[in-house]
Amino acid sequence: MIPTLTITTAVDGTKENAFCSNRGLCDRTSGICACFMSFFSSDGNGNIAECSNAGTCDRSKGECVCDPRFTGASCNRSDGINSISITFRTVFGTLPTIRTTVNGVTSVTVKNDGTGGSVVGTKEDAVCSNRGTCDTLHGICICAEGFTSSDGYGGPGSRGDCGYMEPVYLNSAAKVANEIA
Q1: What is the pLDDT, as a whole number, of residue 151?
Q2: Residue 58 lies in a domain
C-alpha cells in the first residue's frame, strides 16, 4: 500500500474564524448568518456578483456555475483549498519532515534528511530526476556518471536528486581555465 498524507490547515488571512466572515450578523443560538446586502451563503462569505471568484454567475437562474474543484451556492467551498495530499510512489518508511512556505499560495517542500525536496520546475515527479537510481532501502539517489545533487534551480546543491549536470571538459586545461574565469 502506498502511504498518503493529508494535511488540513488554515491559511493566514482567511476569514474562517470570523463570525459570518465579517459580512453579516451571526445568530449564535441557531448558528445561522444573516448576511449583509449582496452577500450570501452559510457564513456570509458568498458575493452574488463574483461567485467567490471561483465561478461565474448564471444571471438567468440566479446561480453560480462553479469552476472545477469548487462547490457551494457561492462556489466558496473547495475539495482541497486548505488541504494538501501527498502520495508517495514508493514506501520509504516513516514520513519525512514537512515544511511549508506561503507566497500567496501554500507550497509544500517535503524533505527526507535534506533530500528529495519538491521545487517547481524540477523533475520532481521523476525518481532521481531520471539521472540515477533510487536506493529505496536508504531513500537516496545514486547518480549516473556526470550528474550530482542540485539546488533545485539548475545549479549544484544538496537536494540529493541527481538534478545537476556536471560540466564536461575536453581536457584539464579547459577545466582550469573555467575555474579561473
Answers
A1: 80
A2: yes
10-residue mean pLDDT series, the chain (181 residues): 46 48 68 61 45 75 79 72 51 45 43 44 58 80 86 81 78 62 53
Task: Look at residues 87, 103, 133 and tell me which one is the last residue of a structural domain.
Answer: 87
Q: What ranges in the chain are assigned the alpha helix state H?
A: 172-180
DSSP conformational letter for 32: E
Question: How far apart are the C-alpha atoms of 161 and 106, rounded to whole Å?
Answer: 23
User: And the C-alpha cell for 147?
Assistant: 550528474
- 173 in any annotated domain: no
Report the amino acid identity of residue 24: G
Is the CB of residue 133 less than 8 Å from the CB of residue 140? no
Question: What backbone phi and psi angles, to 5 degrees, belong to 91?
Answer: -75, 115
Would you state the cell numbers that stand for residue 74, as one nine-digit string?
457561492
